[in-house]
Design a protein that fits this description.
This is Aldehyde dehydrogenase. Keywords: NAD, Oxidoreductase. One of its GO terms (biological process) is aldehyde metabolic process. The chain is of the alpha/beta class and about 450 residues long. It has helices spanning about 5-20, 25-40, 45-55, 60-85, 120-130, 145-160, 170-180, 190-205, 225-240, 260-275, 290-300, 330-335, 355, 375-380, 420-425, 450-455, and strands spanning about 85-90, 100-105, 110-115, 135-140, 165, 185-190, 210, 220, 250-255, 305, 310, 315-320, 320-325, 340-345, 365-370, 385-390, 410, 425-435. The strands form 4 sheets. The chain has a 7-stranded mixed beta sheet with strand order 10-13-14-9-8-15-16, with helices on both faces. A 6-stranded mixed beta sheet has the order 5-4-3-6-7-17, with helices on both faces. Helix 3 (about 45-55) crosses helix 4 (about 60-85). The longest helix is centred in the first third of the chain and has 27 residues, at about 60-85. The radius of gyration is 26 Å and the shape is globular. The structure holds nicotinamide-adenine-dinucleotide.
């Protein structure tokens, strides 16, 4: 979209919000129902588009894109009316007589910038929250999933007037043009380096924002793990979406006595999941672009592959691979891997994991495979990360009652379910004073200092 058109669209949303600051819940719910119906009507198109973008299996689209979105929509349809109601707060006796309330008000004009890796779900889920709270939205999907981006545009334009919600297609330049405008809220999902650029761009307007970023998520397996279940769950969590998941395990830290058994189990389970020739499997995604393929291929070429490593550039295929403990200053340990490569480190004593985890920025997720309570507590309490799971991975994303987000370099803020409501509204505090009595203590002349000192002494 040309810059002038973009500014017109932005201006129309600004004007719309000015006259629609407080839409009634009935009309919001009816729009959410329309959005749900439109998604349902376009399910097949969504499945085909995501498959065209990176051969994501239909089952994974149903579970990780559509199911998540329907769940969020149903939750908002059911609860938005009660969530939006002003909440009565007990008054402070200093303000006697008064009635105090908190109003949950929309921010206004929101910009949502989405990534390509869950190209439908990560664009629509924040949009549901933003619209349900009464905001307007301009949504910029990723240029790397163009088929899904087109379906998103069709769905949004069929449900909403562009004054309220619109999709803007484009790459970096479009995103930067959008970021030059003054927003009331920016919700960004993407990489840490781009998150920093977004953060700087919006700082000039001091725009409130959420950053849903990535990171290197450690996956720890102690000798108290159920190795067979752990291996299955790690393979599922790592290779769903071909490892292109922000909360996928990035590297393994395993008790050294378990390493040989883990690799044996790993091979067995990979074959059980995807068959002997994974490239033929329709249950395994491809890498999103040649550029992303080349970055991962470079890791394969420079590191010691102990399992997997097969790849095919013309199909952008990379097999699930285990990498022998890389150097901590190597590229593969400096960058978020974001692909089907899994470095494996060993430790003798669990405390040794600190030497690796502390060297890397705070991750989005941490996974601990252990049935030992002391080990679980040690890992939860000693490391800072967005969220995590004991004895599985990724599944904390599923519970919409849990806030989902990072910390430090892995993000700022959170969302999902009621937490999305909190993200896309602001709390406006109102004290409603009554007139039937007006206690004069606060007014001049201040001939009551002595009295007030006595009163103050109760607080000292
Ligand atoms: P990305 O940062 O490259 O791109 C994300 C979005 O930002 C895209 O829409 C892109 O067009 C835009 N963009 C790119 N360069 C820009 C610039 N210079 N200025 C402004 N906007 C720009 O991320 P990606 O490759 O699409 O997605 C993968 C990353 O996203 C990974 O790091 C992953 O961990 C992270 N991610 C995080 C979450 C989460 O919920 N925390 C979810 C999915 C992905």
């Amino acid at each position: 979209m040309r810059e002038a058109e973009l500014i017109n669209l932005y201006q129309s949303q600004k004007n719309y919000f000015k006259t629609n600051q407080n839409p009634d819940s009935k009309s919001i719910i009816s729009q959410l129902k329309c959005l749900k119906a439109e998604i349902k009507a376009n399910e097949q198109l969504i499945i085909e588009a995501i498959h065209a973008d990176f051969k994501k299996p239909e089952f994974e689209v149903l579970t990780t894109e559509l199911f998540v979105v329907y769940k969020e929509l149903n939750l908002f349809i059911k609860n938005i009316n009660s969530w939006r109601k002003p909440k009565r707060i007990s008054s402070d006796w200093l303000n006697f007589p008064s009635t105090d309330k908190v109003y949950h008000v929309p921010w206004g004009n929101c910009l949502i910038i989405a990534p390509w890796n869950y190209p439908f779900q990560l664009a629509i889920t924040p949009l549901i929250g933003a619209i349900a709270c009464g905001n307007t939205v301009i949504l910029k999907p990723s240029e790397y999933a163009p088929n899904t981006a087109r379906v998103l545009e069709t769905i949004i334009s069929n449900v909403f007037d562009t004054k309220q919600a619109a999709v803007v297609q484009g790459a970096v330049e479009t995103a930067q043009n959008l970021l030059n405008l003054k927003w009331d809220y920016v919700f960004f999902t993407g990489s840490v380096p781009v998150g920093k650029i977004v953060s700087q761009a919006i700082a000039k307007h001091m725009t409130p924002h959420t950053l849903e970023l990535g990171g290197k998520n450690p996956c720890i397996i102690t000798k108290h793990a159920n190795l067979s279940i752990a291996t299955k769950r790690i393979i599922w969590g790592k290779f769903i979406n071909a490892g292109q998941t922000c909360i996928a395990p990035d590297y393994i830290l395993i008790d050294q006595t378990l390493k040989t058994e883990f690799i044996k189990e790993f091979k067995k389970q990979i074959e059980a999941f995807y068959g002997e020739n994974i490239q033929k499997s329709t249950d395994y995604s491809r890498i999103i672009s040649d550029k992303h393929f080349d970055r991962l291929k470079n890791f394969i070429d420079t590191e010691q592959v102990i399992y997997g490593g097969q790849n095919n550039r013309s199909h952008r295929f990379i097999a699930p691979s285990l990498i022998e403990a890389p150097k901590l200053d190597s590229d593969i340990m400096q960058e978020e891997i974001f692909g089907p490569l899994l470095p494996i480190f060993t430790f003798q004593d669990l405390n040794e994991v600190e030497t690796i985890i502390y060297k890397i920025d705070k991750p989005l997720a941490l996974y601990a495979f252990t049935t030992n309570k002391a080990e679980q507590n040690y890992l939860i309490k000693n490391f800072d990360f967005g969220g995590g799971v004991i004895n599985d991975c990724i599944v904390h994303f599923v519970n919409d009652k849990l806030p989902f987000g990072g910390v430090g370099a892995s993000g700022l803020g959170n969302y999902h379910g009621k937490h999305s409501f909190k993200t896309f509204t602001r709390q406006k505090s109102i004290v409603h004073r009554k007139n039937y009595i007006d206690i004069p203590i606060k007014y001049p002349p201040y001939n009551k200092t002595k009295l007030f000192k006595k009163f103050l002494s109760w607080f000292r």
